Automatic annotation (TrEMBL), chain A:
It is found in: Cell membrane. It comes from Cryobacterium flavum. The chain crosses the membrane at residues 43-64, 102-123, 135-156, 186-210, 231-253, 293-313. InterPro entries: MetI-like (IPR000515), MetI-like_sf (IPR035906). It comes from the Bacteria. GO terms for biological process: transmembrane transport. Residues 1-25 are annotated as: Disordered. One of its GO terms (cellular component) is plasma membrane. This is Multiple sugar transport system permease protein. Keywords: Cell membrane, Membrane, Sugar transport, Transmembrane, Transmembrane helix, Transport. Residues 98-312 form the ABC transmembrane type-1 domain. The lineage of its organism: Bacteria, Bacillati, Actinomycetota, Actinomycetes, Micrococcales. Its main location: membrane. Belongs to the binding-protein-dependent transport system permease family. Residues 1-15 have a biased composition (Polar residues).
Automatic annotation (TrEMBL), chain B:
It holds the Pfam family SBP_bac_1. PROSITE patterns: PROKAR_LIPOPROTEIN. InterPro entries: Bact_solute-bd_prot1, SBP. Keywords: Signal, Sugar transport, Transport. Residues 1-22 form the signal peptide. It comes from Cryobacterium flavum. It comes from the Bacteria. The keyword Coiled coil does not apply. The lineage of its organism: Bacteria, Bacillati, Actinomycetota, Actinomycetes, Micrococcales. This is Extracellular solute-binding protein.
Length: 322, 417
């Protein structure tokens, strides 16, 4: 997966921009395939070792663990086939957890992209102090996610939280409310935080896209009498297709795999009414010490991400040049 | 087709490279043990009880290393939150510590990872453990844990709030507790009558206080019994407390430590506390007018929940038995052990320690209550699952979920193991 994401820049980055497969196939037919491979190895080798060592090897170990019976103290007691997956299927809250994962990903990604589009448009205009505003947008990115989340978490605390106090003071609520102690409110706040920390990357990706919109096209649209809204939806947005689709793809993967925000915000809520797949994996490891079942759920999560990304790549074709 | 062949070649090459790299990384775990030739290294894994824990152990270790120059002790301090993950990972990677300080050990004993304790302490040390802790440290009659420290629970009462609410006597039964807590809550201004921490941090402890207080409990070493009529009565009474507004808001998701801070700040009337709570109040709000009392129960019959943590010795390759014995004997001698337990504000588990500490006034109510304490059935193989089930499910009581359903869920999780 990583390969497919990183290939296009090298393609478009070369001066000719020709696809590599054509010439390669011709040479392969000439029988120099092996020497080609050997001469390429010093360049692709490190990347391959990294992909295998950091991505594939752990994935294989994870799958292996998911088919074993691992005791609470971590001892491998032998193979059990797919019994751990069966345990997962019997776990009734799993349906709600899957649904919540979907809501989590869709809500966070959609809100992030919409707000980023507006922000990027704003930052693309020149105005006094633009540098400072651009810098300010980066801050949530530079700060640790855990720290950002903890700031909000303590702000929402019932006895000492300033957000709670503020809401009481402006008489929006009668008394402090346990925002992080009830599933729906804690989950909603988490979505807000996730959007906040995803904004910088998305905004900057879109901003880069905006800056690559050729000025002459915009000028032409103006001369043809297109209004601002027409220009935006007819000219600018289609030009942003590349930037947007990559931003959405990376956000989907990131948000799906995000643990710290939900772990902090919903961690103290009893039951499974605020859990996503990721927090559930964490609960299996941390609370129940079931490494085998946690591995099984991780494999499921891994497959879900691959399927989502595959569908996305197939439908949206984010790698296609505009 | 040909392209895929080429890709196959790359895949094989990279896999081989990775596997050889990975095997280097994975092999290292076990080697640290008997290496060096000149001496033995003992790996010690401990959780952090307080900010002093690391310094206290370092003091013990440096004294020990002076007395035994051929043994080196490696200290690793982890937070309680991470301890179980750390040990599970270590066991899975064949790199278990030699001595660990932890809670439940039945799982390790069942997996045959531990030395029976009489093989790693001298007869004198073994005889010094108070008998009430020995049973709790044994599985099927074999003692695997060396009791390290104990705690008991008691009801901490904010006397000022009690007086302000017009309650004259500290409650001893549930109905008195409900009445007093409701009156204190009625003071308003963010004051709560009874602090009920059913959040995941230590939900099993608060549950035990109520379940055992109703004459029920968690069961014993052979059977975990959660879904019983007595426990149901307790669960329903917890809901009565919540519904009457006698507790703080969102009791089901409130963790113990933050709630204790609120009690120290003087905003909670009554809460179940531990020996270290005494020190915490002295440090945080010495002006707090409080008293330490027996836990109220359904019929007023005194009860306390005791918890003992243990040191356990892992077998690993079996080469360090002698060094482990030396270290444990050294540590449990009164001159090392008593200052250690005192500094951590817990109760001693040895007879000599108890004799030396019996006259500490702040701990007196706890030391008195300890001999009759009830313990978690932590030697039951299903206890870990039960503990986890309490942590993640019991809080639903305070969210209005049917009490019977909650108990059934916990019992099911527990039986599942």
């Amino acid at each position: 997966m990583t390969q497919t994401i990183h290939e296009p820049p090298t393609q478009t980055g070369t001066a000719t921009g020709r696809p590599r497969s054509g010439p390669a196939r011709q040479r392969a037919a000439a029988g120099t395939r092996l020497s080609d491979l050997i001469s390429a190895l010093p360049w692709i080798g490190p990347a391959l070792v990294l992909i295998f060592g950091v991505v594939l090897f752990p994935a294989v170990v994870m799958f292996y663990n998911s088919t074993r019976d691992i005791s609470l103290s971590g001892l491998d007691k032998g193979p059990v086939g797919f019994a751990n997956y069966a345990t997962l299927l019997e776990f009734t809250p799993l349906g709600g957890i899957m649904l919540r994962t979907l809501i989590w990903v869709v809500a966070v990604v959609a809100l992030t992209v919409l707000i980023s589009l507006v922000l990027a448009q704003f930052l693309n205009k020149s105005f006094p102090g633009r540098q400072i505003v651009r810098l300010a947008v980066i801050i949530p990115w530079a700060a640790s996610v855990v720290m950002t989340t903890l700031v909000v978490y303590y702000g929402l605390e019932g006895y000492i939280g300033i957000i709670n106090k503020f809401l009481v003071d402006i008489q929006l609520i009668d008394g402090p409310y346990g925002w992080t102690k009830n599933p729906v409110s804690a989950f909603s706040w988490s979505i807000g935080i996730a959007v906040f920390v995803s904004l910088p990357f998305t905004t900057y990706t879109i901003l880069a896209g905006l800056q690559s919109v050729p000025g002459d096209i915009l000028e032409a649209a103006k001369m043809d009498g297109a209004g601002r809204i027409r220009t935006y939806f007819g000219i600018v947005l289609p030009q942003l297709r590349g930037a947007l689709s990559v931003a959405v793809l990376i956000n989907i993967i990131n948000v799906f795999n995000s643990l710290p925000i939900l772990k902090i915000m919903t961690g103290s809520i009893p039951g499974y009414d605020a859990d996503t797949v990721m927090t559930m994996i964490f609960k299996y490891i941390q609370n129940e010490h079931k490494i085998d079942v946690a591995s099984a759920l991780s494999v499921v999560a891994f497959l879900i991400v691959i399927v989502i990304v595959a569908i996305y790549v197939k439908v949206v074709k984010p790698m296609k040049e505009v | 087709m040909k392209k895929s062949l080429r890709l196959g070649g790359i895949v094989v090459t990279a896999t081989l490279a990775t596997m050889s790299l990975a095997s280097c990384g994975f092999g290292g775990g076990n080697a640290s043990g008997g290496s060096g030739g000149s001496g033995t290294t003992v790996n010690l894994l401990v959780p952090s009880y307080s900010d002093n824990t690391q310094a206290l152990w370092e003091g013990v270790i440096s004294d020990f290393e002076v007395a035994n120059s051929d043994i080196t002790v490696n200290l690793e301090v982890q937070s309680w939150d991470n301890l179980t993950d750390v040990i599970t990972t270590k066991v899975q990677g064949n790199a278990a510590p030699d001595i660990m300080n932890g809670g439940p050990f039945a799982g390790f004993a069942a997996d045959d990872l531990l030395y029976p304790i009489d093989e790693v302490v001298s007869a004198d040390t073994l005889a010094d453990f108070q008998s009430s802790f020995v049973e709790n440290a044994s599985v099927d009659g074999v003692q695997f844990g060396a009791p390290l420290l104990a705690s008991a629970r008691a009801l901490f009462v904010n006397e000022d709030l009690l007086a302000q609410a017009g309650v004259t006597a500290v409650p001893t039964t549930w109905s008195e507790l409900l009445d007093a807590a409701t009156k204190i809550s009625a003071i308003g201004g963010g004051v709560a009558g009874y602090g009920l921490p059913l959040g995941s941090e230590e939900a099993q402890a608060e549950s035990a206080v109520w379940f055992y207080g109703a004459g029920g409990g968690f069961g014993d070493a052979s059977a975990i019994t959660i879904d019983t009529p007595e426990n149901l009565e307790a669960a329903k009474f917890i809901q009565t407390m919540v519904d009457a507004g006698a507790t703080q808001a969102d009791a089901g998701a409130t963790d113990r430590s933050p709630l204790m801070d609120v009690f120290v700040q003087g905003k909670i009337g009554m809460i179940i506390g531990l020996p270290p709570t005494v020190g915490q109040i002295a440090e945080g709000n010495a002006a707090l007018n409080y008293s330490v009392n027996p836990i109220p129960t359904v019929d007023g019959k005194a009860f306390t929940l005791g918890v003992a943590d243990h040191l356990m010795a892992f077998k690993n390759d079996g080469s360090k038995q002698e060094a482990i014995t030396k270290f444990l004997d050294f540590f449990y001698a009164a001159d090392q052990y008593v200052p250690w337990v005192t500094a951590e504000n817990f109760l001693p588990t040895t007879q000599s320690g108890s004799d030396a500490m019996g006259d500490t006034p702040a701990l007196a109510p706890f030391i008195e209550a300890l001999p009759g304490a009830q313990f978690y059935p932590s030697t039951n193989p299903n206890w870990s699952a039960t503990d986890a089930a309490f942590k993640s499910l019991i809080g639903q009581l305070a969210q209005g979920k049917d009490a019977q359903t909650v108990l059934t869920e916990i019992q099911a999780k527990s039986d599942e193991g």
